[in-house]
């Protein structure tokens, strides 16, 4: 396999963009003879004529027009790779804060993509409750945070909005028992609104755990000893949404939000924000199909 020479491609693109060898040579800081030599080398390598030299202004042949698109992309990819792998702008660390309950499934995929695109940068993942992450953000300790909030402040970019759901063991019956055993961490943002919903719905309930650990909550719920609440689509594989048929109160909607600030890695944090934005859009749960009444089915 033969390889196209980058200098020859740059000379060719410069001539095409500037309409002649003279201007192209000035832009590239080459002599005119050096640019002409690069063009001739490229034509000989490909075995085709790239420029129509019969008129005063250099024009591309049909083959030259076809090569021009490839040449631009090759140069762009070359320059991007050189910048990412050698520029000091792509060295260092970015700090990403994410609440425990929305780490999966999006964040591992984003971290993997980040490592591939920015191999010389490190990412530090901070996992905590929303209120703690916002405090760290306000102190300038993190570049990007994700939050789960019903009413975010003006700085937030809302990535998605999903219902808060009752979560239990797959096929479990804990949700039917009274008093209803409820499990959540002490600092869980959903705890006060869930308790309020149960009390306003007249549901007798009791605490199933006293913990700060999400692992403890998940273990208790997966054993069908209690139920909890999570944003739709974020429950781990060992848990499932409770199909309660309206016997448990609705819990309203929660917004998944992103906050970003410049701590010296502007371009990198901007790209990470794009990854997160795209990933949450692509993983939003699709609404279940509506049941068509028997009377109007074909």
From TrEMBL:
Signal peptide: none annotated. Transmembrane segments: none annotated. Pfam families: HTH_1 (PF00126), LysR_substrate (PF03466). GO terms for molecular function: DNA binding; DNA-binding transcription factor activity. SUPFAM superfamilies: Periplasmic binding protein-like II (SSF53850), Winged helix' DNA-binding domain (SSF46785). Coiled coil: none annotated. Residues 4-61 form the HTH lysR-type domain. It comes from the Bacteria. InterPro entries: LTTR, LysR_HTH_N, LysR_subst-bd, WH-like_DNA-bd_sf, WH_DNA-bd_sf. Keywords: DNA-binding, Transcription, Transcription regulation. Belongs to the LysR transcriptional regulatory family. PANTHER family: HTH-TYPE TRANSCRIPTIONAL REGULATOR LRHA-RELATED, TRANSCRIPTIONAL REGULATOR. This is LysR family transcriptional regulator. It comes from Pseudooceanicola sediminis.
């Amino acid at each position: 396999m033969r390889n196209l020479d980058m200098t020859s491609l740059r000379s060719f693109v410069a001539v095409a963009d500037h309409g002649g060898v003279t201007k192209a040579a000035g832009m590239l800081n080459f002599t005119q003879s050096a640019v002409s030599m690069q063009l001739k080398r490229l034509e000989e390598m490909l075995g085709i004529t790239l420029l129509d030299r019969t008129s005063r202004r250099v024009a591309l042949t049909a083959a030259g027009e076809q090569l021009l698109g490839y040449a631009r992309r090759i140069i762009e990819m070359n320059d991007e790779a050189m910048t990412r792998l050698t520029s000091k702008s792509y060295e260092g660390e970015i700090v990403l804060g994410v609440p425990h309950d929305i780490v999966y499934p999006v964040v591992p995929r984003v971290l993997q993509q980040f490592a591939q695109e920015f191999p010389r940068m490190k990412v530090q993942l901070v996992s905590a409750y929303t209120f703690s992450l916002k405090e760290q953000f306000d102190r300038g300790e993190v570049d990007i945070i994700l939050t789960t909030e019903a009413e975010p402040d003006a700085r937030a970019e809302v990535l998605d909005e999903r219902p808060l759901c009752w979560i239990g063991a797959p096929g479990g019956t804990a949700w039917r028992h009274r008093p209803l055993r409820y499990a959540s961490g002490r600092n869980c943002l959903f705890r006060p609104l869930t308790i309020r919903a149960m009390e306003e719905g007249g549901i007798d309930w009791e605490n199933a755990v006293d913990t700060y650990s999400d692992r403890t909550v998940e273990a208790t719920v997966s054993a069908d000893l209690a139920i909890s609440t999570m944003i739709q689509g974020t429950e781990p594989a060992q848990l499932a949404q409770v199909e309660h048929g309206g016997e448990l109160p609705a819990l309203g909607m929660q917004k998944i939000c992103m906050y970003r600030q410049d701590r010296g890695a502007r371009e990198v944090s901007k790209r990470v924000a794009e990854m997160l934005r795209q990933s949450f859009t692509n993983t939003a749960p699709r609404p279940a199909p509506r049941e068509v009444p028997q009377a109007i089915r074909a």
